[in-house]
Amino acid sequence: MKIIHAVTSLDKGGAENHVILLSSEQKKKNNEIFIFVSKNSFYWLNFLKKSKIEVFKPSFFKENNLFFKIYKFFKDIIFLTNLIEKKKTRRVTCTFALYGIGILFFIKIFCL
Question: Which residues contact 84 (CB under 8 A, 6 or more apart)?
């Protein structure tokens, strides 16, 4: 099974720790695991590489003001929607509710 986990960061925190442990167990059960990270953080990156879990990050991290935050949110949603289509997966978990809403919106509009 192909699974994408969408998280805001790879920092050491509750949701991040849960996703890392969950994805490593899913990988042990021969699932294909991909992680999308919205923010440029690195705490769990080496662990994921050793576990052979692919991590995807957008190229835009600027969030100086409200305009950039909104712009980044939509860029992230488009990136994540394209990742879902490219990897041909329908299993996506989101630790940030707005990503889930945004993905559903794009999937419904573009019939992915």
Answer: 4, 90, 92, 103, 107, 112
- Amino acid of residue 53: I
Q: Could you tell me the pTM of the whole model?
A: 0.82
Q: Beta partners for 56? A: 36
Q: Which residues contact 15 (CB under 8 A, 6 or more apart)?
A: 7, 8, 95
The domain locations on the chain are: 2-110
Assign domain 2-110 one CATH number from 3.40.50.80, 3.90.550.10, 3.40.50.1980, 3.40.30.10: 3.40.50.80
Q: pLDDT per residue over 19-74, tens digit each?
A: 999 999 999 999 999 999 988 888 999 999 999 999 998 887 777 888 888 888 88
The β-bridge partners of 2 are 32
d(CA 53, CA 33): 6
The string of DSSP codes covering 69-95 is: HHHHHHHHHHHHHHHHHHHT--EEEES
What length is written for the chain? 112
